[in-house]
Amino acid sequence: MLVNMNDVLLPAKEGHYGVGFFNAVNVEMARAIIETAEELRAPVMVGTAEILLPAMSLERVAEYLIPMAQKASVPVCVHYDHGLTFEKCMEALKLGFTSIMYDCSTADYETNAAKVAEMVRICHAMNVTVEGELGHVGDNEGAGKLENPSDYFTDPEIAADFVGRTGIDSLAVAVGNAHGDYKFPPKLDFARIAAIAGSTGLPLVLHGGSGLSDSDFRTAVEKGICKINIFTDIDKAGKAGIEEGLSAGAATMMALIPYEIEAMKRVVRNKMELFGSVHRV
């Protein structure tokens, strides 16, 4: 069933478990995610991000994801992640996405709060939920890499003000996490997570989940993280599945699809079990 973010994250917050958000840039990824959620009776969030649109346009993603979510036997929130422009967020809204992340985290605080508050007013009028980001989650490499990530960590007191001024439904936090492959084991600031959860009362979001240890995930959820973003792990698993199929003698794209899907399902299954979202619906 197609739901918004509050429908899956508020029960997660109450039940002290996490819900996975998995990007799905093709139908095979979407199948792996939603089929696993149904098998495990787990709520799930699925979607895409603005940076991933070169792989599959927003319109094409909506064409397969929204009907699949509507037909699913478990709650599925279709989320547009890291929307960087107002225009693209509005496109996602018009296409039927039920949740939007408007990422203005690189702007100054006043601009971030004002722009996100405007997005909340628009989206809430359509029963669509909004995620904001305070502080800034950088990348592990490339142009988005931060020299001193701790300079951009989320401040618990400012977070409370940000939530009050914007009316967001969830808050993405910067606590030592980063997007992409971790070159070295990250050191998450769990005390900061707990302080932000206490000051805001909102479900918190951990970006850059691929590559964190099982212990990191468990402790983060215990301290207040309710949504965990995963992409790199399933992206790499899909590639490994194709390689497995080729090694097994699969000679066509159609023959490779089952290998690709099964490899990604193993990752999704592992994450859902780790986050504690299994048998919640």
Describe it for me?
The chain is an alpha/beta fold. The protein has helices at residues 5-15, 27-40, 58-71, 86-95, 109-124, 156-166, 190-200, 214-223, 232-247, 253-275, and strands spanning 2-3, 19-23, 44-49, 76-83, 99-102, 129-134, 170-173, 204-206, 225-230. The chain has an eight-stranded parallel barrel with strand order 2-3-4-5-6-7-8-9, surrounded by ten helices. Helix 2 runs parallel beside helix 3 (58-71), helix 6 runs parallel beside helix 7 (190-200) and helix 9 packs across helix 10. The protein is globular.
Number of helices: 10
Largest sheet, strands/sense/barrel:
8 strands, parallel, barrel
Describe the global form. Answer: globular
Strand fraction equals 15-25%
Uncertain spans, ≥5 residues at pLDDT below 50?
139-146
What's the count of strands? 9
CATH class: Alpha Beta
Q: Any guess at the CATH architecture?
A: Alpha-Beta Barrel
CATH topology: TIM Barrel
Structurally, how many domains make up the residues?
1
Quaternary status: single chain
The helix-and-strand class reads alpha/beta
Helix-strand sequence: EHEHEHEHEHEHEHEHEHH
Helix content: 40-55%
**Neighbour order of strands in the largest sheet:** 2-3-4-5-6-7-8-9
